[in-house]
């Protein structure tokens, strides 16, 4: 039986909280954090909630050299009833463990991880912001800590959870963003680490984002690593296209991150009897649909932004304006329904939310 | 003019040194380390040599989440004359800065980096081991330290150098190793980060190594990410094949690490009038050459192992034994000449070594 009786050490003095209205993404952190250690001889041990504090590591710790690490991102929401609830945390824990397997990191007992998230959020409950669009972002992550320069899986790890009260991810909110198609750099390729939520995927993607940021593009749209022909995903979102009444999203092919929001969007569309298909889709197909006037909507899906309509897709010198740069009906309905479920404003027919 | 007047704080009590004969790779660290900070408003500042000590970082530091980091690996050698010398440190510094550019990390002034390496090795000179095959491994690295969960280049970094007295990387020494061809996982693809010395490339490769380690394979041979047909490199070595009198190594195609040892091997072979070609080479070509009895030698090249003859190459159920599992003449001559230059036993006609 896995340890669940975490020791809890609370802060003496709580930090002042940022104004709910002025929250940015990932800049403020709460009073406490969760830490648990792993040693190959002991397994995971010493789960504890402690005051938010710096981590002290040997400079030879493997995380600094070979990047053996995974992370997750999910949110806790303040409901109108005054509760705090999590959105599909089970999905994040399962994905964490799938990422662990790809990265040769020992998996974490499901119940233990769930308990750690719940208890930590519970301890810092007064940090869950209440203003519209705000939430408490939960960042579980695991880092390799063995001080050793050989290239091999670490024998020691730390599992850490930190919490950050956040506002809207995109300054634009639910307003459409401009996305640039990346045709030089590659995020991931089948057989690589694209399917895992691991640091290297993000480090490698920065250069592409930098390239287009000056031109006003929020993020890049990645193409496949083999032929640079097929759509993969956006910076930190999966992507959907509504073409001629049908919603299409790239199938999970081994290089795309299997998003929890993506899965939820598919479930919602099905429940509404809106045709939705997971399949390979090329940039050419998108272009053609656009030319024919059949590209009705495009949007990204992700925990940070929920639903982010794409108002413009640019590649080379071509700028495809989608739905007159306005939020489409399906995008809007998905955003509204998802957020209403997340904030407990409507019934949750799927049992997606879990009360803390 | 970049800062070079580093402050030096020496330890009060030196650590006991490990026995030269029992050194492993990357397990022991010296008394001191070099640290320099970067802030977007200040540039690189406060270069200092301090006692080897833990690093203290905010748990939201970007290195833990998005893996923005680069590293290098080079060595200092004790010569028979009692000097300490570095092997081509200029190449490593240039490569560090090329990696920095790919990973959106601010570059470091060449002279400053060189001075940091030299001064640190000088302070820990008595840590350079003297037994045959031993050396002082130098690990410069840069990590993103800004506490921020947005996916963007960090505004703060640390440049750190640590030193580790090392024995031979492979237990087998110059004896041939067995290498397995990897046909499921991919290390890198053009447009990705393969050319940069960055953590994510190594984290992603662990699973492949794990898969074959039990069967006695030292490392895996990576194939290209597009077609899994062309040879890329070995775990932490570039790779060469001697076919019918000609030495062939995969051309630097954007996904292969440009090894300093690789470059030196090419220079040496040219100086000996042994034909050497950098070009795309397929696994099929290797197989065919082996069947015809023309695959005379195969070897890896890298700072850790210098030259590592490949005695067996395995893929699927086929085991190609190369040169009867014995070290070939060219491999031997390269190893001997490289190490003689590195240890100052012969003249250095190329000006590769730099005295500390
Ligand atoms: C690369 C990438 N794709 C897609 C997503 C969306 O996944 P989720 O809906 O689980 O947040 C994320 C996570 O934010 C991501 O990092
Ligand atoms: C992936 C990879 N390939 C090749 C090499 C060889 O490079 P070098 O000869 O500069 O050590 C290394 C470094 O050790 C490496 O990590």
From TrEMBL, chains A, B:
For the modification N6-(pyridoxal phosphate)lysine, the affected residues are: 197
Matching InterPro entries:
Aminotrans_IV, Aminotrans_IV_CS, Aminotransferase-like, B_amino_transII, BCAT-like_C, BCAT-like_N, BCAT_family
Gene3D superfamilies in UniProt: 3.30.470.10, D-amino Acid Aminotransferase, subunit A, domain 2 (3.20.10.10)
Q: Which PROSITE patterns match?
A: AA_TRANSFER_CLASS_4
Q: Required co-factor?
A: pyridoxal 5'-phosphate
Q: In which pathway does it act?
A: Amino-acid biosynthesis; L-valine biosynthesis; L-valine from pyruvate: step 4/4; Amino-acid biosynthesis; L-isoleucine biosynthesis; L-isoleucine from 2-oxobutanoate: step 4/4; Amino-acid biosynthesis; L-leucine biosynthesis; L-leucine from 3-methyl-2-oxobutanoate: step 4/4
Write out the entry's keywords from A to Z.
Amino-acid biosynthesis, Aminotransferase, Branched-chain amino acid biosynthesis, Pyridoxal phosphate, Transferase
Which reactions are catalysed by this chain? L-leucine + 2-oxoglutarate = 4-methyl-2-oxopentanoate + L-glutamate; L-valine + 2-oxoglutarate = 3-methyl-2-oxobutanoate + L-glutamate; L-isoleucine + 2-oxoglutarate = (S)-3-methyl-2-oxopentanoate + L-glutamate
Which GO terms fall under biological process for this protein? Answer: isoleucine biosynthetic process; L-leucine biosynthetic process; L-valine biosynthetic process
Citing just one GO molecular function, the answer is:
L-valine-2-oxoglutarate transaminase activity
Would the keyword Cytoplasm be found if you checked this record's keyword annotation? no
E.C. number: 2.6.1.42
- PANTHER family from the xrefs? BRANCHED-CHAIN-AMINO-ACID AMINOTRANSFERASE, SUBGROUP IIII AMINOTRANSFERASE
Family per similarity comment: Belongs to the class-IV pyridoxal-phosphate-dependent aminotransferase family.
- How is this protein named in the record? Branched-chain-amino-acid aminotransferase
């Amino acid at each position: 039986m896995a340890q669940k009786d975490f020791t809890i050490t609370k802060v003496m003095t709580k930090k002042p909280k940022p104004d709910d209205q002025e929250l940015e993404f990932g800049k403020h952190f709460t009073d406490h954090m969760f830490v648990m250690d792993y040693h190959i001889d002991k397994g995971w041990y010493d789960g504890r909630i402690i005051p938010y504090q710096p981590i002290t590591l040997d400079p030879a710790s493997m995380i600094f050299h070979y990047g053996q690490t995974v992370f997750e991102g999910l949110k806790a929401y303040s409901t109108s009833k005054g509760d705090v609830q999590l959105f599909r945390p089970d999905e994040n824990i399962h994905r964490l463990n799938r990422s662990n397997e790809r990265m040769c990191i020992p998996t974490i007992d499901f119940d233990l991880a769930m308990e750690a998230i719940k208890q930590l959020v519970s301890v810092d409950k007064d940090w869950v912001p209440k203003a519209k669009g705000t939430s408490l972002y939960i960042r579980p992550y695991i880092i390799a800590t063995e001080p050793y320069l050989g290239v091999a899986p670490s024998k020691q790890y730390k599992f850490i959870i930190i919490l950050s009260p956040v506002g809207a991810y995109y300054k634009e909110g639910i307003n459409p963003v401009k996305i640039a198609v990346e045709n030089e750099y590659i995020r991931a390729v089948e057989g690589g680490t694209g399917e895992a939520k691991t640091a290297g995927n993000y480090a490698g993607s920065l250069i592409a984002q930098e390239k287009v940021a000056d031109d006003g593009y929020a993020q890049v749209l990645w193409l496949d690593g083999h032929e640079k022909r097929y759509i993969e995903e956006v910076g930190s979102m999966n992507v959907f296209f509504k073409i001629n009444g049908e919603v299409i999203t790239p199938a999970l092919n081994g290089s795309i991150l299997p998003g929890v929001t993506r899965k939820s969007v598919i479930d919602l569309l099905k429940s509404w009897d809106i045709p939705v298909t997971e399949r390979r889709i090329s940039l050419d197909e998108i272009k053609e649909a656009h030319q024919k006037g059949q590209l009705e909507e495009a949007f990204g899906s992700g925990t940070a932004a929920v639903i982010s309509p794409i108002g413009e897709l640019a590649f080379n010198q071509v700028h495809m304006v989608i739905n007159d740069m306005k939020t489409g009906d399906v995008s809007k309905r998905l955003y509204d329904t998802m957020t209403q479920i997340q904030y407990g404003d409507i019934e949750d027919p799927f049992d997606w939310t879990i009360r803390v």
